[in-house]
């Protein structure tokens, strides 16, 4: 089932807010021109598997969320291991990020993660290779289905 039939690029080690912002900026540039309609939901897959409905959003909302380290920090879910997830209405890909903090008084202590799953045979199927190459040392590539199975929290 798309996008879990394709490839995934994700961080291998924890990311800083600045690294996550750079990766998200690159992903938004690659995805926004081809997919104008997107939805957003809080993904509890790793936390406890709870499923919530998505809501329409816009690329401008995402761009605003990643404008600074502080705005990115503020865009997080307040619970641990709950990712912000974005996808197009075609379900060709799923972009997720997470910002976890140990000390809410200092957002500079957060740890972050990122993943982007892209379905086979889409016009952007090369974005996984592009992202892995652009952020070598930070991102690795894996089959999407196995990545999600290995991280399920329910």
Concise account of the structure shown:
The chain is of the alpha+beta class and 154 residues long. The protein contains five helices and seven strands.
Report on this model:
- By secondary structure, the chain is an alpha+beta fold.
- It has five helices and seven strands; from the N terminus they run βαββααβββαβα.
- It has helices at about 15-30, 60-65, 70-75, 125-135, 145-150, and strands at about 5-10, 40-45, 55, 85-90, 95-100, 110-120, 140-145.
- The chain has a seven-stranded antiparallel beta sheet.
- Strand 4 (about 85-90) and strand 5 (about 95-100) form a beta hairpin.
- The model has no long low-confidence stretch (mean pLDDT about 85).
Helices and strands, with pairings:
Elements: E1 7-11, H1 17-32, E2 38-43, E3 55-57, H2 59-65, H3 69-74, E4 83-88, E5 93-100, E6 111-118, H4 127-134, E7 139-143, H5 144-150
Antiparallel strand pairs: 1-6, 1-7, 2-3, 2-4, 4-5, 5-6
Please give the number of β-strands: 7
Strands ordered across the widest β-sheet: 3-2-4-5-6-1-7
Main β-sheet description:
7 strands, antiparallel
SSE series: EHEEHHEEEHEH
Mean pLDDT: 86
User: Which structural category fits the helices and strands?
Assistant: alpha+beta
In helices, the fraction of residues equals 25-40%
Poorly predicted ranges: none
Distance between the termini: 20 Å
Please give the count of helices: 5
Backbone CA Rg: 14 Å
Shape type: globular
In terms of DSSP E residues, the strand content is: 25-35%
